[in-house]
Amino acid sequence: MQSNEYIQFFDGGIEPKLENLGGKGASLVTMTSAGMPVPPGFVVTTAQFDAFMEEAGITRHIHQLLADLDPEDMGQVDKVSAAIREDICSRPVPQAMRELTVGAYEALMSRFEAPVPVAVRSSATAEDLPDASFAGQQDTYLWLDGVKAVTEHIRQCWASLFTSRAIIYRLKNNIPNEGLSMAVVVQKMVNARVSGVAITMDPTNGDRSKITIDSSYGVGEMVVSGQVTPDNIMLDKVTLTVISEHLGDKHAELVPDAAAGRLVEREVDAERRGRRSLSDAELTAVAQMAKRAEKHYKCPQDIEWALDTDLPDGENLLLLQSRPETVHSSKPAVVTQTVPSVATAGGYFSGLSPAAATAAPAPTTTPAGTTPPSATGFSLGSITASLLKPSV
Known about the structure:
Layout: E1 7-9, H1 18-33, E2 41-44, H2 46-56, H3 59-66, H4 74-90, H5 95-109, E3 118-124, E4 139-144, H6 147-159, H7 164-172, E5 182-188, E6 192-199, E7 210-217, H8 221-224, E8 231-236, E9 242-246, E10 252-257, E11 262-267, H9 270-273, H10 280-297, E12 301-308, E13 317-324, E14 378-381
Antiparallel strand pairs: 1-2, 2-5, 3-4, 3-5, 4-14, 6-7, 6-12, 7-8, 8-9, 10-11, 12-13
């Protein structure tokens, strides 16, 4: 199956456009085109969402519900949000569009010896607005099996464009609802042995001669949502030597349960807690990947990565997301001498550790709260804001 107006594969050879793919989708297509090791997938484009909304005939009603809505009236916002989301989830998707999505899912599954679980991730066009942080406002669903679960959760991602949090954020930041659209990413799920985040600077002071890596066991959502204290390592960006490191407690990991068909939280034994979750070679590989992303985008990057249990060493490091760091990147580059520093206890999200939060600028995104698990997959708020196009 080839890419078309409603479906765009990561490796489909079509130029990524924010208005078609949303922030996450455009990021993943861009990274794939650059030859970076991104798990395969496709994007259900904004054209499909727009066509669905037009066919359903509910856009005008949504604008009426949102008009003159007071963002401080939480009860009314929740009521309006629930009504809009129910309206979207209850309308039938036109058969022709549904068949294209089913065909794309089957084409993705055909790349593997047996069907694999996927992640279904919201990718809103508003994610790329300057000075706007949309993390956690739309939905992500992990470890979904089968086309029925995938199509159902695509529609739930569409509806999450109108969560109470997203509505309030847009109202308070004077972001109009007219013209908003939603793409949805469908991507092979990584069976992560270790995962985490990396930022190509010291997030506490903007020193671009450093790389800071957080890592822990299992799927990375427990790291970026602050549920575990990961290992925190700072390296010299040129030599890749370790400047400082702090071993986190890493008390739990999110891993697949084959029998239940979903992700479950499992306790990490004392031996694994007491050692670094990355080997020296793996640590170097993560740092090199982060540097590669920074070189490609020409500005400091905040990336998500994972080591896939199902892939051989040397091929198992995957790039899940890359976006510019925006707190320090807009300022002149910091030139400092390399002075070993004491690592703060705990990790950071989007380049900022809890201990540093009081002494440094606020992070560009905030951890999303989880939503209840669905019957067909692990559900949580979208953790990561999308790639913002760097100014060059």
